[in-house]
Amino acid sequence: MRSILALNLLTILAPALGSAMSVDFGKRDDNVLFTYYNVGLGVCGRYNQPSDFEWNCGTHCFETITMTANGKTTTAQIVDECPTCSVGGLDLSTGLFDFFAGSLDAGEITGSWEYTT
């Protein structure tokens, strides 16, 4: 089973597309892998920007989560999907990944998250 997860902070909400894959996620996950992706038109039906705080998960479009990594915590909004992410793992916009890691050089970090909506 693959995790399909993406997040965006302070965006204008649009209707979710009905074609998004259905995956059941727990309400939280700890010590999971965070990676980043190049944004564009997401499964939730809008164009995403690299500076957006995003996490991929199509069936949970526009829900928010609270994330913690490297001693930092923030909220982000789900706007896309990631069929190659590990179970519970998150694929973040470059802006969100940079917020946690300080640069994109690491490529991946570990952290925790939980739904806030």
Automatic annotation (TrEMBL):
Residues 1-20 form the signal peptide. It comes from the Eukaryota. CDD domains: DPBB_RlpA_EXP_N-like. Keywords: Signal. InterPro entries: Expansin_CellWall, RlpA-like_sf. This is RlpA-like protein double-psi beta-barrel domain-containing protein. The lineage of its organism: Eukaryota, Fungi, Dikarya, Basidiomycota, Agaricomycotina.
